[in-house]
Amino acid sequence: MFELTVTPRFYETDAFGHVNNTVVTGWFETARSPLFELFNTEGNKPAELPLILARIEVDFVGQIYYGSDVLLRTGIERLGNSSFVVLHQAWQNGKLVARGKAVQVHFEHDKQASSPIPVAFRQVLEQHLGALPEEKSL
Prior knowledge:
Blueprint: E1 2-6, H1 21-31, H2 33-38, E2 51-60, E3 70-79, E4 83-92, E5 95-108, E6 113-114, H3 119-126
Antiparallel strand pairs: 1-3, 2-5, 3-4, 4-5, 5-6
Family: Belongs to the 4-hydroxybenzoyl-CoA thioesterase family.
Pfam families: 4HBT_2 (PF13279)
Protein name: Acyl-CoA thioesterase
């Protein structure tokens, strides 16, 4: 599991005074950065990483407000042959406020096709397999 704390910025709020729903998908993408780094063994440019995003989903289970940090948790739910499902949670003031999933696909850009996740990457991803805690404190 990976954790990252973000501080909501004023411009990320909407007319209702809470963080706009479009912001959360960006936070979750930022929270996947450690996973991107796992696949960047040769100092590749981002466009050369052997990953593409196939799907994202977000459930908003509480309102997120400006003025309090948000803890993001990231883990791996499932590993397939050429894809894996990333789990996300967002916590503010001890409450789960959003959860989501992202499907990442191991991808060969030159062939424009998915390919099996290499064993070395699979072994690292397996270390992060499992459900995320349903409580803020571990």
